[in-house]
C-alpha cells in the first residue's frame, strides 16, 4: 500500500536478400584476397543462423589484457584528452568505421571500389534453425536492409537496437550484428559465400559499444571455427581494444586455432551472443578499428583516469562537467526538486480535475511489512512539513530499509485519485504516450527500476510483472532519458500501458539491506544525452547538510 508524503489536499546492392547455407564443401575461390565458403546472411535482419556459432556462454572467458576507453555518446570530438594534462592521441588512420561521423560502411580495405559488398552491416539470428531470436531497431525502418542500417546511423549515430534471445526449437539462441570483411565475389549472383581475407596485420580489433548484457566479438572463419573475445556489459559507450592474443577459441568449436592464425582467413566479424536462456538487452555499436592501445576511433574523449591494472580508461559518462553539456534542469520541467518555488508535486499535465496528481508517496510491494522508507529528518517536531524533505534533499530522498526481500520506493499518481475525500480511493488513469518516455535525474545506491503502473488500488504485489526500465546505480547525480519502447514487462512486452495510474521508482532489496535514493528531476523524453554533472553529494541535503541515515 502506498503511504503519501504529501496529501495536504492530498545501397540496393544487397537489397535485403537473405541467404544462408551450411555448405561445408571443399570448393573455394582462388582469387586474392583469400576466398572461402561461409554461412553468413546478408544485409538486413537475417532469418538464418550463423555458420560456426555453436557455443554457449559457459565456455567463453573474459579477457583481461585488453585496453578500454569510456566515451560519451554525445560529446564533441576532441583529438586529445586534457583534464589530467595527460594527452591520449587517437590514431585516426586505424579507424575503419565511425558512426558518429555519419559513416555507413566499415572500410576494411578489401573492397575499395565498393563492388563486393564488404563492410555492410547486417543482423543474424537462429531463425533458420527453428529459433525466434531477433533484433528490434531503435529507429523505425521500412525494411531490414542497407537502407535501415544507414537510417540507424543517421538517427542513433550507431547501430542501435535491442536483441532478443529465444531459442524456440533451435539448439540455442543466437542473435547479433556483423559485417563481411571482403564481401562477395559477385553479390548480384551469390550472397551465401563471403570471401575470406587476411587481416592479421590489423594486430587486433577496437570496438566502441554499449550493452545491457555481456556480448562477444567473434572472428568468423568457417562453419565450425570461431574465435571470441568478451565485450563486458557497459551502460556507457566504451572503446575496447583487443590484440589477437586476447581472443580465445569458441568454447565448443570443433577446430580450435589461435586468433592470429584465424585472422589470416576471416570472413566476417560478429557482435552478439549465444545463449541457452531467453533474455533481452539493448546495445549500440558506434565504431570499429584496427588495434591501437590508446584507441582507434575518436568518438569523443574528454578526461583521463588511468587504471592501476592493465586496462586503461578514459571516462566520460552521460553526465559531464566538460564540453557542451546540457543542464539537467532543461529536462526537469515536470519536477525539479531543487526549485523552492515548486509546491512539491510533479506537474504531469494529466490531472483528472481533482488536483491530486503528482504528489509523492512511499510504498512497499506487499502488505506484510517489507520495510520502510526513512526520511532525512525527524518529522513531527522541527520538520513538521513534509515538503521540507525536498528542500533539504533537493529532491525526493530517503533510505530504503528492508525487513525482508521485496521492493521499496517512492512514486506519484499521474492523474490523481478518483475520490479525494476517500482515504482508500483508487488512483485514476491517464494516457501519457505523448510524453515519449521519461528523463530522470537521480542518484541511487542500488539499480533503480522506473515502473509504469496501471494498478489502481496501491497494492504493488505484482510490481515485478509491470513494464519498467532499470537505471544503473550511481552515487553521483545522473540524468538519463529513456523512450517508452525501452520499457519492458516480464512478459517481454515493450512500451508503457495505454493508461497509466502511477510512476514508481523502486529498488529490489534483500532482508536487512539498506539503500539510499534521491529523485531530483523528471521530464518528458528528450533527445539530449550529454548532461552536466555536479560535485554535490546527492545524499547530503541542500540547506543544512543533513545526511540521510
Tag the structure with descriptive keywords.
549 residues, mainly beta, Jelly Rolls, 7-stranded antiparallel sheet, 4% helix, disordered N terminus
What does this structure look like?
The protein has 549 residues and is mostly beta strands. The protein has 3 helices and 29 strands. It has helices at residues 146-156, 259-262, 387-393, and strands spanning 2-4, 67-71, 95-98, 121-125, 134-137, 159-165, 173-180, 204-211, 215-222, 225-231, 234-243, 248-249, 268-275, 279-290, 304-305, 313-314, 319-320, 335-336, 360-364, 371-374, 396-402, 406-413, 437-444, 448-453, 467-471, 474-483, 502-509, 514-524, 531-532. Strands 2, 3, 5, 6, 8, 11 and 14 form a 7-stranded antiparallel sheet that branches. Residues 3-67, 69-90, 301-323, 378-386 and 541-549 have low confidence and may be disordered. The chain folds into 2 domains: 57-316; 326-532, Jelly Rolls (Sandwich), CATH 2.60.120. Strand 15 and strand 16 form a beta hairpin.
Amino acid at each position: 500500500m502506498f503511504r503519501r508524503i504529501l496529501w495536504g489536499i492530498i545501397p540496393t546492392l544487397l537489397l535485403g536478400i537473405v541467404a544462408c547455407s551450411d555448405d561445408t564443401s571443399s570448393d573455394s575461390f582462388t582469387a586474392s584476397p583469400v576466398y572461402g565458403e561461409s554461412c553468413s546472411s546478408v544485409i538486413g535482419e537475417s532469418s538464418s543462423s550463423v555458420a560456426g556459432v555453436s557455443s554457449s556462454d559457459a565456455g567463453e572467458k573474459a579477457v583481461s589484457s585488453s585496453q578500454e576507453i569510456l566515451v560519451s555518446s554525445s560529446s564533441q570530438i576532441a583529438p586529445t584528452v586534457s583534464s589530467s594534462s595527460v594527452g591520449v592521441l587517437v590514431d585516426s588512420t586505424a579507424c575503419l568505421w565511425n558512426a558518429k561521423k555519419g559513416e555507413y560502411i566499415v572500410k576494411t580495405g578489401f573492397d575499395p571500389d565498393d563492388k563486393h559488398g564488404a563492410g555492410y552491416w547486417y543482423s543474424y539470428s537462429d531463425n533458420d534453425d527453428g529459433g525466434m531470436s531477433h533484433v528490434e531497431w531503435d529507429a523505425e525502418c521500412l525494411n531490414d536492409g542497407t537502407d535501415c542500417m544507414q537510417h540507424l546511423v543517421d538517427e542513433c549515430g550507431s547501430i542501435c537496437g535491442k536483441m532478443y534471445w529465444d531459442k524456440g526449437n533451435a539448439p540455442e539462441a543466437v542473435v547479433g550484428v556483423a559485417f563481411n570483411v571482403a564481401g562477395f565475389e559477385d553479390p548480384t549472383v551469390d550472397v551465401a559465400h563471403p570471401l575470406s581475407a587476411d587481416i592479421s596485420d590489423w594486430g587486433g580489433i577496437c570496438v566502441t559499444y554499449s550493452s545491457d548484457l555481456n556480448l562477444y566479438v567473434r572472428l568468423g572463419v568457417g562453419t565450425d571455427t570461431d574465435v571470441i573475445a568478451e565485450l563486458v556489459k557497459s551502460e556507457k559507450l566504451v572503446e575496447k581494444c583487443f590484440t589477437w592474443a586476447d581472443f580465445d577459441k569458441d568454447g565448443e568449436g570443433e577446430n580450435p586455432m589461435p586468433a592470429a592464425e584465424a585472422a589470416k582467413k576471416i570472413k566476417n566479424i560478429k557482435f552478439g551472443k549465444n545463449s541457452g536462456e531467453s533474455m533481452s538487452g539493448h546495445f549500440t555499436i558506434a565504431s570499429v578499428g584496427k588495434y591501437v592501445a590508446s584507441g582507434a576511433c575518436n568518438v569523443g574523449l574528454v578526461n583521463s583516469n588511468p587504471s592501476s591494472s592493465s586496462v586503461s580508461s578514459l571516462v566520460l559518462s552521460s553526465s559531464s562537467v566538460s564540453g557542451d553539456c546540457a543542464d539537467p534542469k532543461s529536462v526537469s520541467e515536470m519536477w525539479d526538486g531543487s526549485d523552492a518555488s515548486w509546491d512539491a508535486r510533479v506537474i504531469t499535465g494529466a490531472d483528472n480535475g481533482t488536483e491530486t496528481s503528482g504528489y509523492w508517496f512511499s510504498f512497499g510491494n506487499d502488505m506484510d511489512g517489507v520495510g520502510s522508507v526513512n526520511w532525512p529528518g525527524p518529522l513531527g517536531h522541527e520538520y513538521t512539513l513534509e515538503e521540507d524533505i525536498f528542500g533539504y534533499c533537493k529532491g525526493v530522498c530517503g533510505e530504503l530499509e528492508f525487513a525482508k526481500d521485496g521492493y521499496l520506493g517512492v512514486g506519484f499518481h499521474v492523474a490523481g485519485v478518483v475520490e479525494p475525500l476517500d482515504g482508500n480511493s483508487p488512483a485514476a488513469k491517464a494516457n501519457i504516450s505523448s510524453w515519449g518516455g521519461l528523463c530522470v535525474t537521480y542518484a541511487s545506491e542500488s539499480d533503480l527500476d522506473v515502473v509504469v503502473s496501471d494498478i489502481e488500488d496501491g497494492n504493488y504485489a505484482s510490481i515485478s510483472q509491470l513494464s519498467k526500465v532499470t537505471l544503473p546505480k550511481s552515487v553521483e547525480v545522473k540524468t538519463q532519458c529513456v523512450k517508452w519502447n525501452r520499457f519492458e514487462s516480464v512478459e517481454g512486452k515493450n512500451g508503457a500501458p495505454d493508461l497509466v495510474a502511477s510512476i514508481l521508482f523502486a529498488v529490489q532489496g534483500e532482508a536487512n539491506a539498506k539503500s539510499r535514493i534521491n529523485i531530483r528531476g523528471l521530464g518528458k523524453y528528450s533527445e539530449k544525452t550529454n548532461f552536466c554533472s555536479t560535485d554535490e553529494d546527492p545524499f547530503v541535503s541542500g540547506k543544512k547538510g543533513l545526511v540521510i541515515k
